[in-house]
Structures are given as C-alpha cells and as structure tokens.
Amino acid sequence: MTATGIGAPVRRKEDQRFVTGQGRYVDDFNRPGQAYAYFLRSPHAHAVIRSIDTGPAMIMPGVIAVFTGDDLAADKIGGLICGWMIHSKDGSPMKAGPHPALAQGKVRYVGDHVAVVIAETLAQAKDAAEAIVVAYDVLPAVVDTAQATKASVQVHDVSPDNTVFNWHLGNKDETEAAFARAKHVTKIDLVNNRLVPNPIEPRAAVGEYDFGTDNYTLYTTSQNPHVARLVLSAFIGVAPEHKLRVIAPDVGGGFGSKIFIYAEETVCVWAAKKVKRPVKWTSDRSEAFLSDAHGRDHVTHAEMATDENGKIIGLKVHTTANLGAYLSTFSSSVPTYLYAPLLSGQYDIPAIYCEVDGVYTNTAPVDAYRGAGRPEATFVVERLVEKTARELGQNPAEFRRKNYITQFPHATPVIMTYDTGDYAASLDKALEIADYKNFPARKQESARRGKLRGIGFSSYIEACGIAPSQAVGSLGAGVGLWESAEVRVNPTGSVEVLTGSHSHGQGHETTFAQLVSDRLGISIDQVSIVHGDTDKVQFGMGTYGSRSGAVGMSAIAKAIDKVIAKGKKVAAHVLEASEGDIEFKDGRFGVAGTDRSMAFGEIALQAYIAHKFSGQDLEPGLKEGAFYDPTNFTFPAGVHICEVEIDPDTGVTKIERWTAVDDFGVIINPMIVEGQVHGGIAQGVGQALLEGAFYDESGQLITASFNDYCMPRAIDLPSFDVGMTVTPCPSNPLGIKGCGEAGAIAAPPAVINAITDALGHEDIAMPATPQAVWRAAQKARMPMAAE
Amino acid sequence: MTTVSLTVNGQSVTADVDPRTLLVQFLRENLRLTGTHVGCDTSQCGACVVHLNGQAVKSCTTLAVQANASVVTTIEGISQGGELHPMQAAFREHHGLQCGYCTPGMIMSAIDIVNRKGNALDEQTIRAELEGNLCRCTGYHNIVKAVAAGAEGMAQAPLQQAAE
After folding, report:
1. Which residues of chain A fall short of a pLDDT of 70?
2. A706/B127 CB distance under 8 A
3. Do A253 and B44 touch (CB under 8 A)?
4. What's the pTM value of the predicted model, to 2 decimals?
5. In the prediction, which pLDDT does A761 show?
6. Domain that holds residue B30
C-alpha cells in the first residue's frame, strides 16, 4: 500500500475549498439578469381548485410572471414520472395517478405546488404569492398509512381504494407449510416511522435559456444529473436532451432526497425560456419539510417460525407502505424490490413470503432515504429475531449465530444470491469490542443507581452496488444501473477522470484519485475527478444505493485497464520491443527482462506527439472510456451493538456504547469509510430516538421545522467504536461492497432492541422519545396501574 | 433603503440595503461571500454562523443594520497568508466534514467555543457547546475530534487567534 493508494487514509482533496468557504453550491451561482421563483403551495391536504386569480399578484412590484398548471399544460409540459413499474399479484400494473409539476384542478398534500411567481427579487416574489387568490373546495384528507385503503377519501381517480399496488414476493405455500410444522411462532407489529431526509443544504435550482443557441442550462442539487436531464427531456419534455445541460456542482448532502426529479427544477428550466431570464429557486427549510420526498412510513405485521432446535424455518410479512400523494421518481421500488429481497437478513431461512400494499395518502411523496427499503427490512428481521430469541429464552447473539448463513453463494427464497460473507467473524469481533461478557456487571451497576441498562444487536445485511441492468430491468426498472467512466490522460501525464457518479459528501475526488494513483503509479495530485456536469461527462447513473465504489470505481478501473493496454502499444513502438514484451509496473512501461523502461507520463507524451509510430498503425492520443455493468448486487453486512442506559424517572435514553463491525469488502480509504458509518448510525439513531414526521388528521404536517422535528445533535450521540472485517466482494473487479447506508440500516433495531431489553417489554415505537420511554417504563414497573 | 457601514474580514464596506436584509443575505448577495450558508429558517442549524465583534452569531437571525459599525469575520476571513486557521486544518485532518455545507458554521462556532472555554476541551463540553449547529453527514464523531484538536492547535498559534 502506498501513502495515497488503495487502503490509505488519505486526507480529502476537496476539503481545502470546503473549510475555506470556497465550495460552490447551487445557491452560490448567480446568472446575469437572474430572476427569482417562489412557489405558492397548497395550505390544504386535499382540495379541488375552483379558480386561481393571478391578477392581483401580477400588478405587485417587481413581478415578471405568474404561472399555473394551465400554463404548463398549454406548453405540453408533461407530468413528473415514477421510473419503476411494479405489478400487483394479479399482474396488473401499478395505479399511477397524474403528477403535474403545478397542480391541475386538485391539490393532494400540504405543500403541493399551486402556482409560481417570478420576480426581480425573492422578497417581491414572496409578497406577490400572497396576493394570488385561490378558491379551494376543501376535501377530507386521508393521512393514516394503515387506514388508507379503508378511507372514504380518494386521492387519485385511478385508484378507488387508494391502493397503488398489492405486490408480493416469495413462496406462500412453502411458508405456510413451514408455519404449520413450527414449534414456536413469534409475532410482531411494527411501525417504521416517517422521516424527513434533511440534508443541511436545501434543494435549489437555476434555469437558464440561451436564445442564440437554443441551449438550456440547469444548475441543480442533484445526486444524478444525467438522470435528471433524461427525465426532464424524454418524459417531462422541457427541453431536448442534447440541448439541455445539467450541472450539479458541490451538493450539500442528499441521502436520497436529491435523486428525484421534482416540480421546482422542472419549472425553473421551463420558466427561464418563458420570461427570457435565468430563474433561480432556493428552498427554504420549511418548504423542504413540506415537499422534499420523505422516507420510510411502513406499517407491518410479521411472524417468524422456529423449529424444536431453535432454527428459523419461516418468515411471513405483511407491510402497508405509504407512498404519499404522488409517486415520486423511484418510490415504487423502495418498499418492494429494495425491501422484501432483504428479508432473509443474514439468516438461513428456507421459506419467506412477503406482501406489500403500496397506498396513496394526502401526504408528501415518499421515496428513497438513506438505505431505502433495506432499513425497513432490517428493522423487521432484527426486531423479530431478537423477540424470538427472548421468547425462546436464548441468548440473542447465539441465537443469531445459530441461524447465520455460512455457505456461499447462498440463494435466499427472496431472489437474492449472497456472494460472500463471514457473519460470525463480525459477531465475534463486535462482542469483543463491546465487552459483551462484562455487560451483566454494567447492568447491575446501573441498577444500583436506579437506572435500566439494555443491550441490543443488529445483524444487518443490505444489497448495494445497485445494480445489474438486466436484473433490475426484469424487475421493472425503467433504466439500466451500470456506470460510466472516461480516463483522459494529458500529454504531461496528468489525468482527468470523468465519472457518472456524483459526490455530495462521499469524497470521490479523493477515493477515485486513490484508485487512479494506485493503478497508474502517479501522484494523486496529478489526478482530477470530474463529475456533475452533463456537458463534461457523457452519461452516468449517479450516486445512491452505495453504488459509487462498487459500480462507479469499477468503471474507472475498467477504463484504466484500457489506458494501460493502449500505453503498452505506444511503449512497444517507443522502446522498440514487441507489445507482448511490455510490462506496466509501478508507473513505468518496461521491456520484460531488460532495464529499458519509461515513466507513465513519458509514454503519455509519446502517445500525443506520435512521432515514434505511424498514425495508420496506432491512433495517437491516450483516452479511454468504459461502461461497467455489475454482475450482481453486493452484500455489505455486519453487526452493530447498542448499549443504553435509561432513566426510568425521566424516560431519557442515553447511548452508552456503540459498536459497529462491518464487512464492506475491500476498502479504498478507511477514514472516509468510517465517516460514512458514523453518519449512517447518526441517522439511524435519529430515527430510533428522535425523528418522526407527523401529520394531523387534516393532513397538516405538524413537524415542519427544526423546532418541531428533532434532528440529532452532537449531545444526542456517543462516539462510536468502529471495526471492520473483510471478505472481498467477488462480484466486481475491486472487491468493494459499499458503505454509505450501513449505519442507517443497522442502527434502528439495535437501539430499539437495547431499549426493549432494558425495559423488559417489547412495546415501544419509534421514535422512542423520553415521553414514550417513560410511559413504557411505568408500564413495566406497574403493569396494571398504567393500563 | 438604509445605509450600513461595517468591516468584513478586515475590509470596510458601505452599502444601501433594504432594512429587512439579513446579515447573511448581505454577506452572500451584496459581498458575494458565499462561504456562509443558510440551512434553515428557524435559527436552528448554525450553517450561517459568523463572528460579530468577535462573538459567534447566527447571521440568518441578525439584520444587516444590526451589524452597522461592527466588525464581522466570516469563514473566508480566518486563514492568514495562505495558511489554514488551526481549526480549519483540524477539520481537514480529522475528517470533520463530508458535504461541507455545515462546515463554515461549525468552524466559526468551534473557534468561538475555544475563545470562551479555552484550549483544553473535553468531549462532553464540545458536544454540549455544539448544540446550535446541525450536521447531517458526520454523526459528529469526527467533528468532536476536530474541535478538540483545533482547540489545541489554536493554543500553539496565538498570532492567528489575535488576527481576528
């Protein structure tokens, strides 16, 4: 390992600009002549729009234009799309209602887009929005996930009972047979609470139109600018694909919420041409709460069957998944193919059957949020495994160990084939780091102080490296999920790598450069990573699903191999040897068995001056591209152990220890990987203890600011003990599995298992706020009195 | 319009502003100092923290006119002669940032914590003192380490502290 190569904790190249305030985020861009957009949003969860009078707004100071859904329709601008087709059990396609960028005839959630004001200043646009007169016929709203299909309220005409799909996976008959012969069945009812992603940078967009060239430009807070361009052009139709440039510069966190193609960027591009001015929109936090796609929101009943030996023999799950008022870009895939295929967890379960009802409600659209389906699956499996172990009187760690998959590859009953792993190794290491053997003593010591101490496990698995294109195509995806890379070697030997991945905190400018440095034997200072601009990078699928290492870097590795192969041809001419005798090692092309060699940069120069070979025999230049399509998902897995101490008098839960042992396969930069784990755990702890998006019965979001929605702060979290085990991934050339979501997937059940362990009963919902824990603690103390 | 005159990062600036202009808007839009960020509208996230007369303030909750005749330091104004401020260097060294959006406010708050609490900061103090700053990426683990290291670094670089 070199100081900057694969496996080195290289300090990040991008940090110089971030710590000095020189980062360039979308809101930092201002275009000449720029106007400002402000969206008038629905104050009602469900209403018919009888009329919109924009006249009073049009005469307000500074107003350039006011547009409604009718204007978009007149220009034949299409609606927003959901790019993953799910079929119900009966084979019928999911029921996708219309999703106009600006409402047409009806609003379906608080925050739905009614009109947009374009004005000289943002303040003027806001003032004018207040002058728009909208006549609403307010309708009753359906909000509750579990009640959605029984409600008299109908969100979309296409779905009389608010069902989007009734989907299933697994083998029902085999699962029923397993339950029929079970010695013990454990049942659980779970709510996976609705979350708001809340990257600290709110979404933003600047649309621009050049009348001279007929070119459109969109600066946008996107995790996948090429996908945004494709959707905006091919489906929504705001601009032809070859005329639209999408730039996603520095992006301040995403966590999934910036994958999707929203109304606001659509309107900014379209309106820029209408008003002949660049149009800028920047979300404020209140708008973000209302209109960024939310995450999770499942109601689940699950049962686990075990035999007389304590072996899990069956799992059945029924989930109702709230998809909100409209189907967001990838929303339908999250509670289906990103969820049920993970229900085998790390366990050898011969029979699994899962049914999922996707439902509409009058709430913000729900889509992928860090982990996307996999945290929900892990919560079901790990809560149920824990509860089963307790009911059987078995140690939860050893119960897990007994049921671990140990032979690979392993085909689960829910379509996944795990390629490799060593789950017991992670468990052993986690038990060691957590000092599990002394937990009873710590529990006693807490008890002496009147405190309740508990310990909770989470043996999670996830499917990352998303994903083999043919496989996801067969499951309904509208796109392929390969990644692209182009490696451009300059005559001086420096290298630009163009990648379809996008970095919004993950540190790609560093880790990708480490790979290039390692493979080409050049300094990482000689490497620039270019991403986030569709005029520079030809195409790419972007960053989500922990895919940028496993898929994005594999594409770079493939392109580097081609560069080396071309370099060998050049070197053969320059060094006057046969191509087969040229070796590339430690950054030099040499003739095998001789001391004749030239540095990578010298061969690059020779490739460009092209004096030593005929242009007819060999093309000048040194630039190669690659598309990499993975052969399988990757399966990061690990064990997290959470140890809590609860004050039964206040209900406050304090996390005393957090142990994370993860197997991410080969690691490029351990410093960055650990940072990803930390951040994921924090979001998972947030879900378990603090965060919850709540609507009242009328559909008003009552947690719509940082005052009301409890984000994890430094004081809420401990330092984390992070360890690693490594089984290299056999499914990609670098052995990488991916690390971005693990913490958020692992953490919630670890926390709740610890709390239920401490309290001695299972009935605690997320977020386990002090009030909820206090009530549960009183119930545990005095079961009768608290009823 | 109202006229404001203040010193920002050592330079005198005078401008006519709408009286409702927030200090953060003034910095970002009038002066194009875009290192100071806006992450919320309820004074909770701390991405907008700057120093006003040497003390940390949330510039999203301060009117530009309130900063009249004052000295403002932003993230762009703390490094000296091309050298990172010890707190900036510590955030980089300890991977105290990921997306970078909360980072300017974190660093400005961290320097203020050191100014108030001294150079030997324990974990509990740092965590409690960071209550006004949200980070969604790091889980705070490395921010806490960075603040502790930056505090020590500031003890060894008194000249830099004095430069503010």
Report:
1. 1, 782-787
2. no
3. no
4. 0.97
5. 86
6. 2-77
